Amino acid sequence: MEAHTSLLKPLHRYEGQMNVLPDKLTFSGKDKRTGDETFFAIKKYQIEELYLGFDESYNAMESRGLGLVWLPLRVTFMQNGKKEKLYIITNYKFFGWANNKDYFEYLKEWLS
User: Fold this and answer.
1) Separation in Å, CA 79 to CA 10, 26, 54, 76
2) 79-105 pLDDT, tens digit each
3) CA of 88: how far to CAs of 15, 39, in Å?
4) Closest-CA residue to 54 (of 69, 32, 33, 44)
5) Chain centre to alpha carbon of residue 91
6) Has this prediction a pTM greater than 0.85?
7) Which CATH number fits domain 14-111: 2.40.350, 3.40.190, 3.55.40, 2.30.29?
8) Which spans in the chain are helix H?
Protein backbone atom coordinates (compact mmCIF):
# COMPACT_ATOMS: atom_id res chain seq x y z
CA MET A 1 0.00 0.00 0.00
CA GLU A 2 1.34 3.42 -0.92
CA ALA A 3 1.21 6.26 1.55
CA HIS A 4 -1.03 9.17 0.65
CA THR A 5 1.37 12.12 0.64
CA SER A 6 1.99 14.98 -1.74
CA LEU A 7 5.51 13.74 -2.55
CA LEU A 8 4.29 10.52 -4.18
CA LYS A 9 2.56 9.98 -7.51
CA PRO A 10 -1.23 10.19 -7.53
CA LEU A 11 -3.18 6.97 -7.15
CA HIS A 12 -3.00 5.01 -10.38
CA ARG A 13 -3.07 1.44 -11.61
CA TYR A 14 -1.28 1.60 -14.97
CA GLU A 15 1.97 3.19 -16.08
CA GLY A 16 2.99 3.39 -19.69
CA GLN A 17 2.76 5.21 -22.99
CA MET A 18 -0.35 6.77 -24.51
CA ASN A 19 -0.37 7.38 -28.26
CA VAL A 20 -2.81 9.49 -30.21
CA LEU A 21 -3.26 8.01 -33.68
CA PRO A 22 -5.51 9.38 -36.44
CA ASP A 23 -8.41 7.06 -35.51
CA LYS A 24 -7.76 5.98 -31.91
CA LEU A 25 -5.98 6.38 -28.60
CA THR A 26 -3.72 3.50 -27.61
CA PHE A 27 -2.05 2.68 -24.34
CA SER A 28 0.69 0.17 -23.68
CA GLY A 29 2.29 -0.33 -20.33
CA LYS A 30 2.20 -2.27 -17.11
CA ASP A 31 -0.56 -3.04 -14.62
CA LYS A 32 0.96 -2.08 -11.27
CA ARG A 33 -1.31 -4.48 -9.35
CA THR A 34 -0.51 -7.62 -11.34
CA GLY A 35 2.78 -6.72 -13.02
CA ASP A 36 1.28 -7.82 -16.36
CA GLU A 37 1.90 -6.00 -19.61
CA THR A 38 -1.27 -4.32 -20.86
CA PHE A 39 -2.54 -2.78 -24.06
CA PHE A 40 -5.82 -1.16 -24.95
CA ALA A 41 -7.23 1.02 -27.69
CA ILE A 42 -10.15 3.45 -27.73
CA LYS A 43 -11.43 4.30 -31.16
CA LYS A 44 -12.21 7.92 -31.83
CA TYR A 45 -15.89 7.23 -32.52
CA GLN A 46 -16.25 5.49 -29.12
CA ILE A 47 -15.35 8.63 -27.16
CA GLU A 48 -18.41 10.40 -25.76
CA GLU A 49 -16.87 13.01 -23.49
CA LEU A 50 -13.62 14.64 -22.44
CA TYR A 51 -13.57 16.30 -19.04
CA LEU A 52 -10.82 18.11 -17.17
CA GLY A 53 -11.47 18.17 -13.45
CA PHE A 54 -12.44 16.17 -10.41
CA ASP A 55 -15.63 14.18 -10.02
CA GLU A 56 -17.24 11.67 -7.67
CA SER A 57 -14.85 8.89 -8.75
CA TYR A 58 -11.58 10.86 -8.76
CA ASN A 59 -11.71 13.61 -6.18
CA ALA A 60 -9.14 16.22 -5.20
CA MET A 61 -7.83 14.09 -2.33
CA GLU A 62 -6.73 11.46 -4.88
CA SER A 63 -4.38 13.97 -6.52
CA ARG A 64 -2.03 14.06 -3.53
CA GLY A 65 -1.84 17.84 -3.92
CA LEU A 66 -5.48 18.52 -2.98
CA GLY A 67 -6.20 19.61 -6.54
CA LEU A 68 -4.18 22.78 -6.28
CA VAL A 69 -1.65 22.01 -9.04
CA TRP A 70 -3.28 19.78 -11.68
CA LEU A 71 -6.61 18.24 -12.68
CA PRO A 72 -7.28 14.72 -13.96
CA LEU A 73 -8.27 14.25 -17.60
CA ARG A 74 -11.28 11.93 -17.95
CA VAL A 75 -12.21 10.17 -21.18
CA THR A 76 -15.71 8.67 -21.20
CA PHE A 77 -16.27 6.11 -23.94
CA MET A 78 -18.47 3.19 -24.98
CA GLN A 79 -16.88 -0.23 -25.32
CA ASN A 80 -18.66 -3.57 -25.60
CA GLY A 81 -21.99 -1.86 -24.91
CA LYS A 82 -20.74 -0.40 -21.62
CA LYS A 83 -19.89 3.17 -20.67
CA GLU A 84 -16.32 3.29 -19.39
CA LYS A 85 -14.21 6.05 -17.83
CA LEU A 86 -10.48 6.41 -18.16
CA TYR A 87 -8.60 8.92 -16.00
CA ILE A 88 -5.35 10.12 -17.52
CA ILE A 89 -2.44 11.83 -15.79
CA THR A 90 0.07 12.92 -18.42
CA ASN A 91 3.77 13.53 -17.89
CA TYR A 92 3.47 13.66 -14.12
CA LYS A 93 6.42 15.23 -12.36
CA PHE A 94 7.08 15.04 -8.65
CA PHE A 95 5.84 17.92 -6.55
CA GLY A 96 2.51 17.71 -8.31
CA TRP A 97 2.87 18.91 -11.88
CA ALA A 98 1.16 17.26 -14.85
CA ASN A 99 0.30 18.72 -18.25
CA ASN A 100 -3.25 17.40 -18.48
CA LYS A 101 -4.59 20.78 -19.59
CA ASP A 102 -2.40 20.70 -22.71
CA TYR A 103 -3.52 17.14 -23.54
CA PHE A 104 -7.15 18.08 -22.91
CA GLU A 105 -6.90 20.89 -25.47
CA TYR A 106 -5.05 18.64 -27.91
CA LEU A 107 -7.64 15.86 -27.62
CA LYS A 108 -10.53 18.32 -28.06
CA GLU A 109 -8.96 19.45 -31.32
CA TRP A 110 -8.24 15.84 -32.34
CA LEU A 111 -11.90 14.90 -31.82
CA SER A 112 -13.29 17.80 -33.84
Assistant:
1) 26, 14, 23, 10
2) 999 999 998 888 656 555 567 889 999
3) 10, 15
4) 69
5) 10
6) no
7) 2.30.29
8) 100-111
